[in-house]
Design a protein that fits this description.
By secondary structure, this protein is an alpha+beta fold. The chain has two domains: about 160 residues, no CATH class; about 110 residues, OB fold (Dihydrolipoamide Acetyltransferase, E2P) (Beta Barrel). The protein is elongated and about 85 Å long. The N terminus is likely disordered.
Length: about 290
């Protein structure tokens, strides 16, 4: 076994590039705004071509401008959904109940605020003389019931796209992550993509690679958290496996335990308790 001198800060912390990858990029505003502009386009055509859809209280230009303002505000919904992902632990590795609950709550609140603004615009553009704030509650309720289905459907689709995008970012970040191990004053850099599987050894872990086995001063629990999402999956209380190297899963000892056969011919443990989740991760990673 190639056991190098383990070091406390053995892994290279998230680099500036990695931190930037998980940030909301400026170009995402364009994608979010495009959704609103797409929907605005259909309503604009309807307003311009069909006179019954023109508001009696304002001119055509004002109506189109206010309608554009409403749809343009949509771009804040995906941005706030992204913030929910940022604030939820484990949001990259799985769609947890906590994450889903927060996204649903955020969606409901945002839809009420956004569609409430639409209700105010409709009253301003369409209501007859004598309307006042007493009309507002019913207008908001009517507007929310009429539009919330489409609003929440687009919001759910946006959340799904964000989840896929962030999952891919996490996998790229994970594979680019590097670990430093010192030997005789020299530092050997090991990429996460080289690691076939990780084995717990007290307060250390053994990194199994095709170049050998190397020790890192870090607990398996901490390393699992650092490498959450992407290709690495916990298979046993003492093992973490890179799915990119898995060849097959076999049972042993009368189906009491399971083994994961890796591409280099080595075998890693798989507990019965984690079998179903491990197989599920294998299917989704393909």
């Amino acid at each position: 076994m190639n056991v190098f001198q383990p070091i406390e800060a053995g892994d290279v912390a998230q680099s500036a590039a990695q931190a930037r990858q998980m940030r909301w990029h400026t170009r995402y505003w364009g994608f979010a705004l495009a959704i609103g502009l797409f929907l605005f386009g259909f309503e604009a055509i309807q307003i311009i071509w069909f006179a019954p859809f023109r508001a009696p209280n304002v001119g055509l230009v004002v109506q189109l401008s206010l309608t554009l303002l409403f749809y343009g505000m949509w771009m804040f919904a995906p941005r706030l959904a992204w913030a929910v992902f940022d604030q939820t632990t484990g949001a990259v590795s799985s769609l947890s109940k906590q994450l889903i609950g927060r996204l649903v709550l955020a969606g409901l609140v945002l839809s009420i605020v956004h569609l409430g603004f639409l209700a105010v615009l409709k009253l301003f553009m369409w209501a007859g003389a004598g309307w006042g704030l007493s009309f507002l509650p019913n207008a908001i309720l009517e507007t929310w019931i009429g539009y919330s289905g489409l609003w929440l459907m687009i919001y759910a689709l946006s959340c799904f796209v964000i989840y896929i995008l962030r999952s891919r970012m996490a996998k790229i970040d994970q594979l680019n992550r590097r670990f430093e191990i010192r030997k005789n004053g020299k530092t050997l850099s090991i990429s996460a993509s080289e690691i076939l599987w990780v084995e717990a050894s007290g307060n250390y872990v053994q990194l199994h690679t095709e170049r050998g086995v190397f020790m890192l001063r870090k607990s398996l629990a901490k390393l699992s958290t650092d490498l959450q999402g992407g290709a690495f999956v916990r298979s046993h209380r003492q093992a973490l496996i890179n799915l990119d190297y898995v060849q097959s899963i076999n049972s042993s000892a009368g189906l009491k335990t399971f083994e994961v056969h890796l591409s280099d011919g080595k075998i890693a443990p798989l507990s019965r308790r984690k079998l179903a989740a491990f197989k599920s991760k294998m299917l989704t990673s393909q």
